[in-house]
Automatic annotation (TrEMBL):
Belongs to the carbohydrate kinase pfkB family. Its EC number is 2.7.1.144. One of its GO terms (cellular component) is cytosol. Pathway: Carbohydrate metabolism; D-tagatose 6-phosphate degradation; D-glyceraldehyde 3-phosphate and glycerone phosphate from D-tagatose 6-phosphate: step 1/2. The keyword Iron-sulfur does not apply. It catalyses: D-tagatofuranose 6-phosphate + ATP = D-tagatofuranose 1,6-bisphosphate + ADP + H(+). One of its GO terms (molecular function) is 1-phosphofructokinase activity. Residues 8-285 form the Carbohydrate kinase PfkB domain. The keyword Transmembrane does not apply. This is Tagatose-6-phosphate kinase. Keywords: ATP-binding, Kinase, Lactose metabolism, Nucleotide-binding, Transferase. It comes from Hominiventricola filiformis.
Amino acid sequence: MIYTVTFNPSLDYIVSVKDFKLWNTNRTDTELMLPGGKGLNVSTVLKNLGMDSTALGFTAGFVGDEILRRIENIGFKSDFIKLENGCSRINLKLKNYDGTEINGQGPVIEHAHLEALMKKLDQLKAGDILVLAGSIPSSMPTSTYEDVLARLQDRKILTVVDATKNLLTNVLKYHPFLIKPNNHELGELFCLEFNTHEEVIPYAKELQKQGARNVLVSMGGKGAALVAENGEVYTSDAVKGRLVNAVGAGDSMVAGFLTGWLEQHDYAHAFRMALAAGSASAFSELLATKDEIMEIYDQLQV
Ligand SMILES: Nc1ncnc2c1ncn2[C@@H]1O[C@H](COP(=O)(O)OP(=O)(O)OP(=O)(O)O)[C@@H](O)[C@H]1O
Ligand SMILES: [Mg+2]
């Protein structure tokens, strides 16, 4: 089973407002509500690709209940810990003012809640996959990812970590199966800026030397590079298309990679599925469907 973790899931309220004005009452032209959070995005695209997963994390209050209801509608399993206090967050996103958003805080996660999650992780079995994606809420220790991986050590569980800065470098010693920095996040680790496949490869190899098994560097419209555990390096440009909404392209890529890997245990196929899923989500308003992904898969040569 694949497990994804979303510590602080949200209900995203995505609206467009014509001529948005500060200090005024503005009215929406279009409205959309979706469950949000990187782990939930990964679970959604896995579901679209026909793969089962269980989403873990914390929910609270009526927003938490609505998130769970929507997850059920999408059709993947979840086993969230419901907190007694507080409320899961609503994130307001202004669609036609790219990147303008007001994100809520979410509930306070206490030590006992985290311990309850750790107990659930104790049930994972050899061969299971755990995806940890995104930032850690401020009420939780910054060592949470490391603590989780330390607890999973020596249990033959494959881990995927999509995180930035120390959150990422601190887990390398636990040999995550996959890490997926984008080129900017990779650059940040080395105080450099990367724009080409050739530039990222030596640094992806360095992260592999530090412990990561597979390093997938996404590069937005420039495609991606994979330094794989088998010693092979794969690079590809992205297919050309109209960018509609890049939010969740990275999460889709993780879902595509896992699906491809589980299907064939072949890195070229996993890389191609990853690229296809990332681009298909970038070219679509919502997260990509299987048809959208496979259409792009057929156009790629890896
Ligand atoms: N404009 C684009 N055109 C074609 N493909 C794209 C585009 N943007 C993203 N992709 C595809 O999606 C993959 C992941 O995108 P990106 O590098 O932006 O991830 P990210 O920054 O981690 O995103 P996020 O964290 O918001 O999910 C890219 O490697 C590429 O395959
Ligand atoms: Mg990302």
